[in-house]
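Practice record 12: protein with protoporphyrin IX containing FE.
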Amino acid sequence: MAQFLWVILPYLCLAVMIVGSIYRYTYGQLSWTSKSSEILEKGFLRYGSVLFHYGIFAVIGGHVMGLLIPISFYHALGVPDEVYHAVAIYAGGAAGLVTWLGVILLLIRRIFNKRVRKHSSPSDYVTLVLLTIVITLGEFMTTVYSGINGAYEYRTTVGPWFRDIFVFHPNASLMVHVPLVLQIHAIAAWLLFASIPFTRLVHIYSLPWRYPTRAPIQFRSRTRYQRKAYQNKAGQ
Ligand code: HEM
C-alpha cells in the first residue's frame, strides 16, 4: 500500500498530467481556456478570484521554501528551526487563509448562483472540490495541527520524499509516519495535478508573462470629455 500511495500514485498522476496535457494541446486547443463566467456573475467572482489567485501564488512560494529547499540549506544559513516554523505558520497560515476564503467564495458562487450553475460542467465542480479539499487540509495542518501539537517537521520527511520523486529515487518509507491529514493533503494534490488536462486548470500553462510589459489597450474612453475628443479626432 505504501509503495502504491507514495511511489506509484505520484508517477501515475504525473504521467496522466503530462500525456493528457500534450494530447489536449494537440487536439483541443480551442477549449484551452478557463472559460470566463464574469458575464454571468461579477460580485463573488471579483473577491473570490482575486483572493484565490493572490493567495495561491504565496502558497506556491511557501511550498518552494518547505518542500524544494532542503533543511540543510536553512541550517547552513544559520536559520533556527523555531524561526523557520514561526514564519511558515504565520506567513503560510495567512496565505492559506486568503486562498481558502477565495476558493470557498468561488465554490459557493458556482453551487448557489443559478446562472453560473447552468453554465458549469462536472469538471468545474471536480476542480473546485479538489482545490477546497487540498487547501482546507493544508491550512488545517499549518494552523490547527501546529497549534495543538507544535509544528510538524515536514522538511525531513515530506520534503525529501517530494524531491526524490523528480530524481526517480522515491522512498515511500519517508511518508509512512507523516500525520494522516498531511498524507491526504498530498494524495488529493496528486489527483488535482492529474485532473489538470481535463479541466479549466489547463490555463495555468498559459500564464500571461507579457502582460506587465505590453502596451496598454484602451477599450473605451474614461470620461465624456475624452469620448468627445476621440469622436472629434475620428471625424464622427
Ligand atoms: C504533492 C503536493 C503537495 C505536497 C507534498 C504538499 C505539502 C504541504 C506541506 C508539507 C504543508 C505544510 C503543513 C504544515 O504546516 O504542517 C502544506 C501546506 C499547505 N498546502 Fe500543500 N502540498 C502539496 C500541494 C498543494 C497544492 C496543490 C495546494 C493548493 C492547491 C496546496 C495548498 C496548501 C495550503 C493552503 C497549505 C497551508 C498554508 C501554507 O503552508 O502555505 N498544497 N502543504
